[in-house]
Amino acid sequence: MLEIIKSRKNEAVKLAAKLVDSASFRRKKGLFVVEGARLCCDAALSNIEIISVYFTLAAQAKYEAYIAKIMQRCHFCQLVEEHVAQILSTTKSSQGVFCVCRIPDESHKLINMNPSGMYVALEQIQNPANLGAVLRTAEALGISGILLLGDCCDIYSPKALRAGMGAVFRLPCYMEKDTAVAVKQLQNMGFTAMGAVPAETAQSILTTHFSKPTVLLIGNEGNGLTETAIKACDISVTIPMKGRAESLNAATSAAILMWEMVRSKIQQKPEETSCR
Amino acid sequence: MLEIIKSRKNEAVKLAAKLVDSASFRRKKGLFVVEGARLCCDAALSNIEIISVYFTLAAQAKYEAYIAKIMQRCHFCQLVEEHVAQILSTTKSSQGVFCVCRIPDESHKLINMNPSGMYVALEQIQNPANLGAVLRTAEALGISGILLLGDCCDIYSPKALRAGMGAVFRLPCYMEKDTAVAVKQLQNMGFTAMGAVPAETAQSILTTHFSKPTVLLIGNEGNGLTETAIKACDISVTIPMKGRAESLNAATSAAILMWEMVRSKIQQKPEETSCR
After folding, report:
1. Is the confidence at residue B273, as pLDDT, over 50?
2. CB-hemisphere CA count at 13 Å for B169?
3. Phi and psi at residue B111, in whole multiples of 5°?
4. Cβ neighbours of residue A217 closer than 8 Å, sequence gap 6 or more
């Protein structure tokens, strides 16, 4: 039987709570916190290193199967009282299961990207729910990975993790502060860099060929791509529309752009799909 | 100078507050409440009938231009104190602008649909944020209108209105409780009814022609379309995927399906787009 942490002043709990609250602390420690039985189990079943798991007695009873799987891949397991679990939670009705995980140290090495892959790069994206939604869609559609350029919101924030439904554990994610440097490196690796813009003067994605390895750059929710990013790209592309183009939200634009990127690949390989 | 409502017990305010809270009361009265300066202005500039507008002194100063436009198309204008405005608000930081609007009475007349249009029908959709997102995307992509089949969440709920960014004011929306009856009527009007399903045995949307007037049926977030709906449709279609298909969310699936519906129309009419 595990001992129960009864105090919010427990050092391990205080560290975890600070990881939940602060993006800069997460970066400093190289750690982040996952909340929820299913999401923690997703992390455990992926290549993410689980440092510790905390759960309440109620959670132990309710999510027994999930917690058993998590405990198999975890260095340190600990029961916590409900009022202790509360300081780790960012949800209204917490499931009472939390993992402290290590941020993969591969995240800054663009050189490890698959040179024949299809990638999406998000520049200065600010809304963690949007970021999570893009990750989730990217994984669903078979995109090779995600790049975060400039000052993006934190991919390991509670909101982004929740919206991403665990995609961040399985999808390679790369980060680079300097967009121009990143695009140059990608081009040197053989990628075509395409900048998605709302301008009607850009090339329609309907006439764009995604046959070569491509990185598609998508900009900030309010302001789009920076001038630096647009200039660095090989080409600007746009979603042609009959309706009110300005009202397509960031995650939905990204979904349509990603769909167009993978669409031709799916068509090329009918044996992998259900085309009849 | 307008008088100020100082009491939360004011009858008009109490009615508006009840409209905010209760979907059944909205249906009973045929009225709904819009919150936010921009969204209220959107309603005023569309064909929605504005019964009354309520705003705080702070809002009057801050959103003068919006409020002027709203007042031009409104039967009754009234200042309210901050604490009165609070009982009408469902947001953390309210702008203090609210309109009581009339639900269009055209909403049950499928016969008024454009017989050469492209429509999306949502069956038993439960999440108002998803519903709003689908409406917003539908408008952006130039879909002709939306049908709500079975027991859907309320299109006039505060969350759905906010997520929809005013699309509900401009996009024709039709409602019908009985899916089989609705599909039969649509087929009699000349529409092809397509049911979107996750099954690999369904026809890929990549090989589906949307040249005829079409209604695409999309099901509930968790359970998909009902058997009744699938049987009533002329054909089942699916999004072929290489990735983890199960993790595409309802609003994103709908966006990709709608994009495929309108994609060929955009391609057929290059003069309307920016294809170069």
Report:
1. no
2. 24
3. -60, -20
4. A121, A122, A123, A149, A179, A183, A193, A194, A195, A196, A225, A229, A233
Mean pLDDT, range A161-176, rounded to an integer: 91
CA-based nearest residue in chain B for residue A207: B275
Q: Cβ contact (<8 Å) for A200 and B267?
A: no
Contacts of B91 (CB under 8 A, 6+ apart): B35, B36, B162
**Token pair for residue A120?**
């999406």
User: What is the distance between the alpha carbons of residues B161 and A73, in angstroms, rounded to a whole number?
Assistant: 44
Query: Residue A16, class by beta-carbon neighbours within 10 Å (0-12 exposed, 13-18 middle, 19+ buried)?
Result: buried
Please report which helix (H) or strand (E) contains residue B162, including its range. helix B158-164
Q: Which of A141, A197, A258, A268 to mutate to test the interface with B (most CBs of B within 10 A)?
A: A141
Using only the alpha carbons of chain A, give its radius of gyration: 20
CB contact under 8 A, B272 and A204: no
**pTM, rounded to two decimals:** 0.86
Count of alpha carbons within 13 angstroms of residue B241, beta-carbon side? 25
Partner residue opposite B207 with nearest CB, options A207, A244, A275: A275
Query: Torsions phi, psi of B128, nearest 5?
Result: -60, -30
Q: How many C-beta atoms surround the C-beta of residue A165 within 10 A?
A: 21
- Give which of B16, B26, B19 is closest to B55, Cα–Cα: B16
The distance of A238 to chain B (nearest Cα, Å) reads 8
Contact by Cβ (8 Å): A86, A94: yes
Length of chain B: 276
Tokens of B227: 């058997």
- Band (B241; pLDDT cuts 50, 70, 90): confident
Q: What is the pLDDT of residue A47?
A: 82
pLDDT in tens, A226-274: 999 999 999 999 998 877 756 688 889 999 999 999 987 776 544 433 2
Residues 6+ apart with CB under 8 A from A68: none
Q: What is the pLDDT of residues A173-213, one digit of tens each?
A: 999 999 999 999 999 999 999 999 988 889 999 999 998 99
Separation of alpha carbons B38 and A175, rounded Å:
36
| Cβ atoms within 10 Å, residue A193 | 21
CA-based nearest residue in chain B for residue A138: B243
CA neighbor of A133 nearest in space, from A221, A193, A208, A214:
A221
pLDDT of residue A245: 59
Mean per-residue pLDDT over chain A, rounded: 90
Task: Quickly tell me which residue has 């750059």 as its tokens.
Answer: A217
β pairing state of B235-238 and B203-204: parallel
For residues A168 and A231, give the distance between their C-alpha atoms in angstroms, rounded to a whole number.
29
Quick one: average pLDDT of A106-123? 89
ipTM above 0.90, yes or no: no
Q: Does A77 touch chain B if contact means CB atoms closer than 8 Å?
A: no
Distance CA B142, CA A247 (A): 11
